[in-house]
Amino acid sequence: MQMLLKGDYFNGRFTHPEGLGNLSGAQERILKKCPAELTQTLWEAGVYFDHVEKVIASAEKGFDSWRKLSFAERINFLKKYQEIVRARKDEIAMALALEVGKPLWEAKTEAAALDSKVSVTITDSLKRIEQETLKDVMPKIDGHVVYKPLGPCFVIGPFNFPCHLANGQILSALLAGNSIIFKPSEKTIFSAQLMIECFHQAGFPEGVVNFINGTGYTAGKLTGDKRIRGIFFTGSRNVGLKILENTYKDLGKLVALELGGKNSTIIHHDTNISHALPELLRACFLTSGQRCTSTSMILVHRKIEQEFISQFKALTERIRVGHPTKDQDPFMGPLIDEHAEKLYFDFCQFGKQEGAEEIVSPRKLDVGYQGHYVSPSIHYAKKPDLKGKFIQEEIFGPNCFFVPYDDIEEAIKIANCTEYGLAASVFTRDQDIYKLCLRDIDSGLLNLNRSTVGATARMPFGGVKNSGNHHPAAVSMIDHCVSTVASLETLDDNSSKISDVVGLEN
Ligand code: NAD
Fold first, then answer.
1. Distance between CA atoms of residues 392 and 109, nearest Å
2. Looking at 37, 99, 197, 258, which residue is catalytic?
3. Separation between Cα atoms, residue 445 and residue 442, nearest integer Å
């Protein structure tokens, strides 16, 4: 697949900055190698900050016309987009597989989600922002709550789901009447560009959808700009903090942060082990552990610890790691880049230093292609260092670690010891245990007999503590794309009398 970058997208067209031919005029250059085959350069991008001003001006112009359209008119555009992403889903999937390194079968699920998300936004999200009327909210007065778009919104995406996550935020923002500027991860520009091409083909009015490339520096210029009224960020906790630092003086700017996780699963002694094993295997290692919802800690009841861990270990050793598009259905592909690979090995080393035993060691793999291939790894700790780096920080690689427990309260305490709070799950037949977990585990998602990965677009998706700032995405994303206007309506313009005013001289 040839990956031709078309530049930034504003005023309804893709625009290469001048001098792109030899990249000499670029303020930043990004060289993208395929993580599955480093001998293959996918693209080289020049980043030009000069476009920031033009992109914002385009989004302002787009907003002015788009906000005046009815929901029905906006829905028509969304449906045209839906037809186009559906038709181009194989091409998008191939780009995702090559840029991210996720297996093609998995990339296809991300590409398919772009289409289904349109329907969910229209059927499930829209009703949350339709005008509400409260009859006789005061004597002879009706009340209306009106939801108004914010203005130009800036969507910033991570590398691990380059299209799906931004797509959800963009669709909600657009349906609510905002214009958007999307900056994808600098590691996955091409997949994101394909998605923007679909918006272009759908004929959205000029300036409604915009696209800018670059690194954190470019993003920082936009987040700090007063004309940007909403920021929808998905990425790491540290970058989320930087965005807050850059925006906190602009009180009217809505900043919704979807951040990392350090997710736990509790395996109680009454669990059906053969059901829990495949669930957990996928949760720990799919996408090479590069999901915000990947399971990191497995708290297993001491009664079944040996049986469970030995079966899990045996399955882990059967995991096929391979080229995402050339090998037949590997379980997982490579990590995204050299930095991620180094972090993975360093992290496993911290585990050992902090007293965890390595049950399956991480290895650099030779799968026949020069890429960032690593094997999954498993650690075990009877008494983990709850303050240590290994248990506190997000790993973003294919590692999990087991901790045995006797008492459910003890398991919950360990699950809550990290500063993150995105996803958790519990495997048990005991409803009381489930209810206890629901009540006491600090996380935005908590599943029963289902792992931490694989959320639905029809429910809110977001975390607590350092995993987000209480603006969950998915179905509730649209709530953060609007401001509310409360309007009291007195149709009887004869109901107010001067004689009713207290304190007037005769
Ligand atoms: P990252 O934070 O390194 O980068 C995310 C985006 O932020 C990129 O587009 C990057 O260019 C941009 N960025 C960098 N500096 C910036 C700045 N100063 N201001 C504004 N934007 C800036 O994250 P990543 O490595 O691409 O993705 C992995 C992280 O994302 C993990 O922590 C993962 O858990 C998290 N994530 C969270 C969710 C969720 O829904 N909660 C989903 C997917 C990924």
1. 31
2. 258
3. 9
Q: Is the pLDDT of residue 21 over 50?
A: no
Nearest atom in ligand 1 to 185's CA: 9
pLDDT at 18 over 70: no
Output phi, psi for 209, to 5 deg.
-115, 130
> Is residue 213 lining ligand 1, measured as CB closer than 6 Å?
no
Pocket of ligand 1 contains residue 186 by CB under 6 Å: yes
Rounded mean pLDDT of 264-282? Answer: 98
The pLDDT > 70 percentage for the chain reads 98
Domain count, the chain: 2
Q: Where are the beta strands (DSSP E) in 423-491?
A: 423-427, 445-448, 460-461, 464-465, 473-474, 482-489
Specify the pLDDT at position 45.
87
Q: What is the pTM of this model?
A: 0.97
Q: What is the mean pLDDT of the chain?
A: 96
State the distance from the centre of ligand 1 to the C-alpha of 235, rounded, in angstroms.
2
The verdict on 197 and 308 lying in the same domain is no
Query: What's the pLDDT at 19?
Result: 52
Mean pLDDT of 456-480: 98
Q: Is 243 close to ligand 1, i.e. is its CB under 6 Å away?
A: yes
CATH of the domain at 267: 3.40.309.10
Whether 400 is a known active-site residue: answer no
Q: Is 417 a catalytic residue?
A: no
259 lines ligand 1 (CB under 6 A): yes
Parent domain of 80? 8-259+468-487
The CATH number assigned to the domain holding 25 equals 3.40.605.10
**Within this chain, do residues 103 and 132 fall inside the same structural domain, yes or no?**
yes
Task: Please count the other Cβ atoms lying within 10 Å of the Cβ belonging to residue 479.
Answer: 18
